[in-house]
Amino acid sequence: MNIQSPVDFFHAHLGQYLVPDASPRNSTAPSLPTRTKAAREAGLAAADLPVKRVGTGMPVYYIVTPSHAWFLSNTAAPSSERVTAVRIDDDEGRAAIKGNQYLAHWLYHEAPLDQPFLIGNVEKASPIAAMAISLPPTRIIFCTTGKYGRLVLNLLDFREDVATVRASGIPWETLRKANLLKEKVRQSAKGILAPQEEVTARKEIGKLRKKHPELLATLKALHAKPGSGEATLLHWFFQEGNYYGQVIKAAQQAAS
């Protein structure tokens, strides 16, 4: 299969629709009319918004497939037949939609298993160095220059883990805590941590098991390990509020 470079792929399926006259490299972090603090305070209309390079204030997020793209931002970028623009800021300039959570839900609900795609965010640094095309289902890459760094995960494992967590009825934060405690036990057994830390970790696991008898069986069924791409995406997926679902529902209501 002949696959374009990440930059060319981004430009062909998203960048050229955001900034038609930009080069492929420049389209990865374009300058667009942005709802800045000053613009909000001045009550500027969309046509009068200042043009700013995306990611310099609030991070923006993207999903790029050969047939459609999504662009989550605080810009006035319009939706089109090929691009769905999702506003992530509210009228006070706060992040009203968690971009990471939206992307995690898209991966679970919609990501294709047989087509390459790009998924990630743009922050202050140039996104180009972090860009890599995902090849589902075994190699999904969340591209970012932010604090998480590039994340790599298996899409099928991630989807199975979401189903496992939901079926267990155990809050993800409890499973996440227990997973970290189990890792401490393993590290203590290898001499990496002090023996006392193992004792403390085992006690904490015991407390959690009293509340959730199926805890260890659920942990054993999970593919996600502490620090893995799957674990990070699960954390995003199970954050409070389903902003992905709200946006999809609103779009369906608007179309009806």
What is the topology?
Elements: H1 6-18, H2 24-27, E1 31-33, H3 37-42, E2 51-53, E3 60-64, E4 69-73, E5 83-87, H4 99-109, E6 118-122, E7 140-143, E8 151-153, H5 155-168, H6 172-189, H7 195-211, H8 215-221, H9 229-237, H10 243-255
Parallel strand pairs: 4-5, 6-7
Antiparallel strand pairs: 1-2, 3-4, 3-6, 7-8
Task: Characterize the overall form.
Answer: elongated
Low-confidence parts: none
In the residues, how many domains can be counted? 2
Strand adjacency order, main sheet: 5-4-3-6-7-8
How much of the residues is beta strand, in percent?
A: 5-15%
On the 0 to 100 scale, the average pLDDT is 92
Number of strands: 8
Helix-strand pattern: HHEHEEEEHEEEHHHHHH
Main beta sheet strand tally, sense and closure: 6 strands, mixed
The structure class reads: alpha/beta
Alpha plus pi helix count: 10
Termini separation comes to 39 Å
Overall helicity: 40-55%
* Cα Rg: 21 Å
